[in-house]
Amino acid sequence: MKILNRRNKLFLAGLATICVASTPSIACKCIKASSAKAGLKAANTVFVGKAMDFGYQKLTSRVQVKMAGGKVKMVESVQSFHKIRFIASRSWKGAPQRTVVVLTPFSGSPACGYSFVRGREYLVYANIYRWPKQSKITHLYTSTCQRTTDTLKAKKDLAELGMGTRVELSKITY
Fold it and tell me: How many beta carbons lie within 10 A of that of residue 47, not counting itself?
């Protein structure tokens, strides 16, 4: 009986290894705008800002799902994001306030979240995100699929975009 138990354990361990090894990984796949001008055209807001505060934003909605047999069921749908507060210094589109809050998916996720570092300055290309779709509440959203990048790596984009507009200190909001 001990041999049978040992064989079962070996079989299960081998099966688990095969299942884990054969599970496809989900990677971020997207196409960025080919130039700063194309990124500017595609985005709702483009600004340079310093990443200051980090938090989490959870968006929850109840949606109807049609089940087998035509039965309709209400299901809670949740999306979670990193929430970053920027102090903006320059703007090219969307005329942001001095303080701008942007959402991004968790980095490393299939939703292509951007990894921001507190205290660094970024050129941010962001779009308006409304979730659920019928909501009146909007958020700014960016990801690695947009041209958002650290300003140290954005020299070409900044040259192509030009000077932009200086964001006034008097526009600080909290």
Answer: 27
> What pLDDT band is residue 19 in, cutting at 50, 70 and 90?
very low
pLDDT digits (tens, 9 = 90+) for 44-72: 999 999 999 999 988 877 777 888 888 88
Strands of 105-156, DSSP E: 121-129, 139-141, 149-150
Q: How far apart are CA 83 and CA 42, in angstroms?
A: 22
Does the pLDDT value for residue 21 go beyond 80? no
Question: How many other CB atoms are there within 10 angstroms of residue 32's CB atom?
Answer: 16
DSSP-derived letter for residue 173 is -
Strands 121-129 and 72-93 come out as: unpaired
User: Which residue has 């505060």 as its token pair?
Assistant: 53
Q: In terms of pLDDT, which residue wins out, 122 or 129?
A: 122
CA distances from 153 to 59, 123, 150, 169 (A): 32, 9, 5, 26
Identify the structural domains of the chain with CATH numbers, from first to last: 36-171 (2.40.50.120)
Secondary structure, 3-state, 78-89: EEEEEEEEEEEE
Provide the token pair at 171: 């526009």
Which residues, in sequence order, are CB contacts of 79 under 8 Å at separation 6+? Answer: 58, 59, 131
